[in-house]
Design goal:
By secondary structure, this protein is an alpha+beta fold. The protein is about 15% helix and about 10% strand. A four-stranded antiparallel β-sheet has the order 2-1-3-4. A hairpin with a 5-residue loop joins strand 3 and strand 4. The protein is globular. The two termini are about 20 Å apart.
């Protein structure tokens, strides 16, 4: 596991394969194709899963929450630095 704090509980769904991975580095290590972020056209669909309770949520819910809305497990605030790798519409120059 590449990020291993108690708050690293979210799994992110990639647009290329619709598969959840713990992080972009896990995708690069396991998948046999390049990672593609979740597409803008599908932003209303679940693209994040809580690793504690299994609840799925949209990127908007995830990126605006400090914790899982279903079980209150805290999310790692440092993950915001990588949002652009997971969600196509997030610009890395805007702090995400």
């Amino acid at each position: 596991m590449h990020y291993a704090t108690e708050s690293d509980v979210a799994a992110l769904r990639f647009g290329c394969c619709e598969t959840y991975y713990a992080c972009f580095e896990c995708h690069e290590a396991i998948a046999e194709h390049p990672p593609e972020p979740w597409p803008t056209a599908r932003r209303g669909e679940p693209s994040v899963r809580c690793g504690v309770c299994g609840a799925e949520m949209t990127a908007a819910t995830y990126t605006s929450s400090e914790a899982c809305p279903a079980c209150d497990a805290p999310f790692n605030p440092g993950c915001a630095e990588h949002y652009h790798r997971y969600f196509e519409w997030i610009d890395p120059d805007d702090g995400g």
